Amino acid sequence: MQEVDFGVGPFSLSVVRAEMVDYMRLFVGDALKIIGGLGRPEVDPWGFLLPLGPLVWTAILAALLVVPGMVLLLLFCFPRKAPQRDTWKRDNIFLYVRILLQQDYETEPGEWEWERLVLGSWMVMTLVLTKSYSGTLMSMLAVRYIPQPYQSLRDVLDDPSATMMWPGGTFYMQFLKAAKRGAFHEVMKSEEYGRVMWVEPLEYRRKLETLVVHGRHVLFIEENESRSIMADVFSATGRCDFYTSREHFLSNSMSMIGQKGHPLVPAFSKSIKYVKQFGIFDYWLEGFKSNSSVCLRPPTRITIKSSLAISNVWGMFVVLAGGHAVALLLLCLELLAAHLI
Description:
The protein is an alpha+beta fold. The protein has three domains: about 5-45 and about 145-305, Periplasmic binding protein-like II (D-Maltodextrin-Binding Protein, domain 2); about 45-140; about 310-340. The protein has twelve helices and ten strands.
């Protein structure tokens, strides 16, 4: 067995290694990130709900309850002599819904001026709301969303169809096997279900191009290494088929190593100190790979011009069918109630 004076690495700092070798001056910090395959551009079938935020939908529903209730309360306080009063009270429940859905309405004789004012204000609000909604919706239908589902370790663990590929024979493998609780312990538990693969560094690119690109496998890899591999793939194909997660985890410091007590360790540590302090190492690292930043932040949405397919708007038809089903059910209940009465 041959002996060496030092190892270039860089090697992650760990207690087990520090007992056997001497670390030189730490010169680089890194952390694991997730590399996943970009999904195909798609339209959200429920996108017709997106032009208005949840608070706006809540405010509309609240107004549909509050405004008719206030009007009915005022009618009880200030009754009018028109014979159609009882009919108006029954229709008033649905009046504001009719206007919101842009249906017609005929005024009745004997209405108070404040009734017309409230009704006119509601019409103006409805006009502004519907015009804003339709304009925003038309813009959003031209947008295609590119899924990037795995942004954290928890996202991967919660998806039983995702397979995780971790660096094999490394500090990270030792850490995962030693974990007794938490998310990293769950990773090792998921290995029992075939959801964990150990991959050697030389296999990273091949795994990316054969497994990760299809979207059901994710690769856990150091950030600097991910930039290098993605740059190589982009240089070869001209495409950004992958994305990296926003979350970092298992941050660690790395350096070269030498034999215990070897005189090269302090000498190299001094040289590493100067190279790092004067920014030479960072300069080398940035210029090490061309196209290293091209695919760091791929777009999550793009705009295209094409005809809509049924797969893009089936959510609207679900709402339409659901409305007809509820209306049919209510009609049957009304007929049944009329027959019993």
